Amino acid sequence: MIKAVKKLFNIAKSEQAVLFSVMSTGWSFIAGPVTIAIVGARFTPELQGYYITFISVLGYSAYLQMGLGRVIIQFVSHEWAKLDFDGEGCVTGDEAAKSRLANLAKFAIKWYLAAGLISIIVLLTVGTLFFAKSKDALETSIWMMPWISMGILCGLQLMITPFFYLLEGCNQVKQVYKFRFFQAVVGHLSIWIAIYAGANLWTYSIYFVVWMLMAILFLKIKYWNFIKSIFITRAAKEKLSWTKELMPLQIKLVALSLCTYVMFQFYIQGAMFARGPLRACQIGTTITFIMMIGTVMGAFIGPKMPYFGILIVGKKYKELDNLFIKLFLTAASIMIFGGVVLWIGVLLLNTMPFHLAKYYAGRLLEPTPTAVFIIAYIIWILSSSSGLYLIAHKKMPQIWIAVITTMLSVGTMLLFGNRYGITGSGIILIAVQIIMLPVMLFAVFYYRKKWHSQ
After folding, report:
1. How is residue 93 annotated by DSSP?
2. How far apart are CA 89 and CA 101, in angstroms?
């Protein structure tokens, strides 16, 4: 672990984008438990169950992006290898690349406007029906208006997000991740203040408002000339074909994202619907903690994805390999350490003879199922994150491995979940992940050799 920490500081010195990304993840590791503790102290178990399930159901809106965010980053990065900013912050460089970038940007903004509108409609209809029909549902006066507010604001937030994907693809990762760090700090502070002010289920709506105000100010102050040069003054003569270029990768990224979501969020929503908000509170809180561990991998590799694309265009494969392996191994070491710390924390809550410890332990799963799901999730993240190397090439031939893994995992959970309980289901999940991990690694090495020899 000491070596991993040293690597972390060395990376932070040379890669400021990674530094801010790691800082954001570190803040989440601090702020996440604090938020859950405050929610546990100020909300009843039923309200906490609704709060967590609200956020879980909102996650479905991300799939209306159809994976376009990552596609934007990788395709823009390949065009940005021939472009730059001029002194006024406008795009300059190769005209063909500039034209393709403008076309992609205009397509993205239209897509996200439509996705945001559809998200609002779906969340307000299907989501409301889901909560109304859930077991032991509370009075509609308690949850309906906060849910409607969150659904609308979530859709509006979705409409703003493509600008940040475009900036990442243009290798503005340092500025974007620096902003995201401060946004995360302010966002959590707004949640804590709202909870103590008695906002209850309105809390996340307040967070959405703060997020959007900060995003709009950031884009206006720092990148308004960039936005004008792309969306107003530049006509796209050379166009990207969505069906031939973007859609193949987009569909595969949606499938990968859906695999992760279904494999783990399935437990929260299933518990809410079948066993009520109290059980959803326990499972949802535990899985929320566990999924925070996976953000470590994204914190290290995510900021460098645009740069990976630039290296690939320049055929600098050795530099690409060295950087990816360094980031992957460092993140994996810290992620495993984080999993151990999380499990020890849950164990201590269940063994300490204090009323407060027992109170919070009752909001989580027991130590054994917690350990099982920590192991399963870490193996899954190692497998899926190794595939980011291939995604940087704007290709994703390994998607069938993720789909098969998810089908096997969910299928065995449905077949054996009632018989063996949540711990038994988790052990089966681990077995599936262990079998499929070497298959994924083989695919990465196979396609790496194939593509780089061309």
Report:
1. E
2. 15
Residue 232 CB neighbours (<10 A): 8
Sequence-distant (6+) residues with CB within 8 A of 180 are: 20, 21, 24
For residue 13, what pLDDT is reported? 47
The two tokens of residue 125 are 């209809």
User: What pTM was estimated for this model as a whole?
Assistant: 0.71
**φ, ψ for residue 194, nearest 5 deg:** -65, -40
Segment (H or E) for 83: strand 83-85
In tens, the pLDDT along 392-427 reads 888 888 888 888 888 888 777 777 766 776 778 778
Phi-psi sector, 49: left (phi>0), alpha (psi -120 to 50), beta: alpha
Vertex 346: Cα angle to 340 and 352 (nearest 5)? 125
Q: How many C-beta atoms lie closer than 10 Å to residue 10's C-beta?
A: 12
Q: What are phi and psi of 239, to 5 degrees?
A: -110, 150
Check residue 98 and give its pLDDT: 83
284-304: pLDDT as tens digits:
778 878 888 888 888 888 888
Pick the closest to residue 109 from 159, 182, 168 (CA basis).
Answer: 159
- Contacting residues for 99 by C-beta, under 8 A, at least 6 apart: 234, 235, 236, 237, 238, 239
The stretch 344-373 carries a mean pLDDT of 84
Query: By mean pLDDT, which of 124-128, 246-250, 339-343, 439-443 is the weakest?
Result: 246-250
Residue listed under structure tokens 């178990």: 45
Q: How many residues comprise the chain?
A: 454
**Count: domains in the chain:** 1
Task: Provide the residue range defining the domain that includes 436.
Answer: 2-452
Cα 348 → chain centroid: 29
**pLDDT tens, position by position, 68-84:** 887 888 888 888 888 88
Q: Tokens at residue 365, please?
A: 């799963």
Residue 372 identity: V
Give Cβ neighbours of residue 411 (< 8 Å, ≥ 6 apart). Answer: none
